[in-house]
């Protein structure tokens, strides 16, 4: 019998996955090795150990043993490979979450805040129009009582907005009144010295100019105020209490209101009434519609406490546009006047009359030249009433507001017929209107 010596092969070592720069570990490669080689040696890693334990317990990765099923089929289809990759990725993510809390925390993503369409529109409106709104500081000269040094100290502040790329800034007149120096701060916090181009005290509008490059200036889109409706949404942007840009919202609560100018007491007609919060510092800022167009200048509030708990008023943009156009061209507003001083409305009512009582009519003024009689006293000290104006060009005049409203519709150089009560008689006197004297 011949002896046959067989060569005994050494025990086969289980394959080892060794990651390197050229062939990094991938979910697919790990998945295939786990199913083809049950006893393969893996690097010491809690992630791979969990995968191996999961495979041993369930007969493959995942409870359905899809891994072994797909590996056994030969050749692997592209669909099977895609499923394997997805399952391996899910297993890796699950094992990472279970093995290391800190690592799992890195996968926690805070869901983005979902805004409604109207909220997104409001946010977009604020972002697009904020660069057009400026902060105005009113500086006044003061002398120190001890050192006698002359200092410039802030005496007030307000808001304004960029009108054009030539550096024109629109604001309220009462924001700049009494200033020895004015400074305008743009949205990018750059500050410029401002000069006064002109102002209209009667309508509480002022126009400034700064020397800023056109790249820094973002003119506000100008709308119209003639077609506004009560109830439509409005947005006010300004710098209340010296804070950074602030947005308040509301609706138009009234139209064609009338307020008095803070400087001259002359009525401002067709004012927009809004319930949007307007605080000190909002004056001169823009009032916008839902499209982001300028419809007015925030100018005043009516509130017993002086805060925004009352009603806000804005000068309509149609009025502002006409004033700014004249200020840019001529540096002043040419508004016709009669050239009289008249008594308060309450005094005329107490006398039992309806109209405007002329207190003074300077001889060099239009009314004085036409022969209107002022109120005066005789040689015995008795009061002799002047002419009482009852109509102009056939339009009834019952108080000072009516007179101003009629004159605002007239032009300089126009001849008007003024009807007055003089003593016991009515007279009609022609008067040629003249421009208002220059103001400094």
TrEMBL record:
Pfam families: PDZ_2 (PF13180), Trypsin_2 (PF13365). The keyword Acetylation does not apply. Residues 327-399 form the PDZ domain. GO terms for biological process: photosystem II repair; proteolysis. GO terms for molecular function: serine-type endopeptidase activity. CDD domains: cpPDZ_AtDEGP1-like. Keywords: Chloroplast, Hydrolase, Plastid, Protease, Serine protease, Transit peptide. Gene3D superfamilies: 2.30.42.10, Trypsin-like serine proteases. Coiled coil: none annotated. GO terms for cellular component: chloroplast thylakoid. It is found in: Plastid, Chloroplast. Belongs to the peptidase S1C family. This is PDZ domain-containing protein. It comes from Stephania cephalantha.
């Amino acid at each position: 019998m011949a002896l046959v010596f067989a060569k005994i092969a050494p025990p086969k070592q289980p394959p080892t996955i060794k990651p390197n720069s050229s062939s990094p570990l991938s979910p697919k490669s790990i998945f295939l090795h786990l199913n083809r080689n049950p006893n393969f040696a893996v690097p010491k890693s809690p992630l791979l150990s969990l995968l191996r334990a999961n495979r041993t317990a369930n007969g493959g990765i995942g409870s359905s043993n899809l891994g072994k099923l797909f590996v056994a089929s030969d050749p692997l289809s592209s669909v099977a490979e895609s499923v394997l990759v997805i399952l391996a990725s899910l297993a890796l993510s699950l094992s990472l979450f279970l093995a290391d809390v800190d690592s799992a925390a890195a996968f926690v993503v805070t869901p983005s805040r979902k805004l409604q369409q109207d909220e997104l529109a409001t946010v977009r409106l604020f972002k697009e129009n904020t660069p057009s709104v400026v902060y105005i500081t009113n500086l006044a000269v003061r002398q120190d009582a001890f050192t006698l040094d002359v200092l410039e100290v802030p005496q007030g502040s307000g808001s304004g907005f960029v009108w054009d790329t030539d550096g024109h800034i629109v604001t309220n007149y009462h924001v700049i009144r009494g200033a020895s120096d004015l400074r305008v701060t743009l949205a990018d916090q750059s500050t410029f010295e401002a000069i006064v181009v002109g102002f209209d005290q009667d309508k509480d509008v002022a126009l400034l100019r700064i020397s800023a490059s056109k790249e820094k200036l973002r003119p506000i889109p100008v709308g119209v105020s003639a077609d506004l409706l009560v109830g439509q949404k409005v947005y006010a942007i300004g710098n209340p209490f010296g804070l950074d840009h602030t947005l308040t919202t509301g609706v138009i609560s009234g139209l064609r209101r009338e307020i008095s100018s803070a400087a001259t007491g002359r009525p401002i007609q067709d004012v927009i009434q809004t319930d949007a919060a307007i605080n000190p510092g909002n004056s001169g800022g823009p009032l916008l519609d839902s499209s982001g167009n300028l419809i007015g200048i925030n100018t005043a509030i009516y509130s017993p406490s002086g805060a925004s708990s009352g009603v806000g008023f804005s000068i309509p943009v149609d009025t502002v546009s006409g004033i700014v156009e004249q200020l840019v061209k001529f540096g002043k507003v040419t508004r016709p006047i009669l050239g009289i001083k008249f008594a308060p409305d309450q005094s005329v009512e107490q006398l039992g009359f309806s109209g405007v009582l002329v207190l003074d009519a300077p001889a060099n003024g239009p009314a004085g030249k036409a022969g209107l009689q002022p109120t005066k006293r005789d040689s015995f000290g008795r009061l002799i009433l002047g002419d009482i104006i009852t109509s102009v060009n056939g339009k009834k005049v019952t108080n000072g507001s009516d007179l101003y409203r009629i004159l605002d519709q007239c032009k300089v150089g126009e001849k008007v017929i003024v009807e007055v009560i003089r003593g016991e008689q009515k007279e009609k006197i022609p008067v040629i209107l003249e421009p208002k004297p220059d103001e400094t």
